């Protein structure tokens, strides 16, 4: 059996100019990075502005196991299948972060015969977007520290710095640091820390910005600190937004690549859904809607995280409306949510599966609260038994939800034809009545209460003293009428990763609130969630290698 990287290496890729040409994109609107990657020009937006939007398909999932449930694989395979049934479809995905690539979860280019290629390039440095975002964020931090060193005209309070440095790697040792040590020449000593690049506000801004001018304005609105009088200091006060925009001038342009079956893919931006808003860029999605009759996009982790934020943040800011939600489920994850230990997930266990179906039920109900028709995609594993598959299909019939057994990993687009046909059927016959979950003008506590009770099924929300203090400051600054982005474990509907299935009788505890004024939302930190992940005991990095001829192995 071939590995993911071996399958990708054997792919018969088309020149990216040919992929772009299939969508009617002229050569002057393609900025090639070699033969198989390109960025798309700013001018293309104006050229496609009068085209009608295609149908938008959101791919989400149940709460996953630590290994993930194959949302990207299903998204890629669905796009390939749409091509096989004659539909003009463009896939819009997030870019991988190096943290998971070298950590536990692997890359974000799909798997098996449903991959985006060139897989090695995409999972490593790609077109440099992640590095540009990291550089822009850290330039702002450097300007902040330099300002304090060079006289501190703004009277910045070094005890109230609101921005972290970042890097696109899992490194728990950098979560909390002290900088400026070594005497006066080396700066002002203060506490600092790092977050992973994909959890930075600069990443969120890139993904939500309408254009370069909006990007620059949002960067200037980043809250970086408070002064000694308790007044806010923004990036624009440091005159940082111009240089940051210069670093991001090319990064804001969507990247174009292709699937193994030569379907067009726009891959741009990559925030995590457990610690950020978890969606690819608004610009890439809106362009994909103009270029194809269908656009497939993915939101990170379970529907309680990525899909809720897709609807309440990305759709709100981007003015887009999904036409259908595909909920990816695996037999393994359903049994995991039913209480089966990870080591036993390959064994048949229908009773545990049926217990875990409560998790799928909650996610189906949640997507319908946004007015979206649902198709359940069972991402099939070789260990799934016929009895287990039958139990899921019977359950979906009771829920009046279309269900499709997919073999996308093993068969690519061929294994997703039934899913593609059912998605098209649902869009045509059921229709979406899309609506947001809450009015952003509501107080922050009311918005969090709505999410906690209606999406997580919590009894309510508890706030620590630190959260209450932060909330008062945010309201004082006039940002209480922004959407909320909940940072929460992906493994549970609650903020406790051990509460699997569809728990009841719990509260969500908000330990702190962070204002992302540039992005336009407030982040609520719950449970033990961290914005800088750590590496597992055996990182994926130890199995990745490169020989003397430059051939990479071990990527997945």
In brief, what are we looking at here?
The protein has 556 residues and is α/β, with parallel strands linked by helices.
Q: Could you explain the architecture of this structure?
A:
- The chain is an alpha/beta fold and 556 residues long.
- The chain is built from 19 helices and 25 strands.
- The protein is 35% helix and 20% strand.
- The strands form six sheets. Strands 1, 2, 3, 4, 5, 6, 14, 15, 16, 17, 18 and 19 form a twelve-stranded mixed beta sheet that branches. Strands 20-22-23-21 form a four-stranded mixed beta sheet.
- The longest helix has 21 residues.
- The chain is globular and about 70 Å long.
- The mean pLDDT is 95.
Q: Could you state the oligomeric state of the chains shown?
A: single chain
Overall geometric form: globular
Could you tell me how far the N terminus lies from the C terminus, measured between alpha carbons in angstroms? 14 Å
The helix content is 25-40%
Strand proportion, as a percent range, falls in: 15-25%
**Main sheet makeup:** 12 strands, mixed
Total strands: the figure is 25
Q: Measured on Cα atoms, how large is the radius of gyration? A: 23 Å
Low-confidence stretches: none
Give the helix tally.
19
Structural class: alpha/beta
The pLDDT mean sits at 95
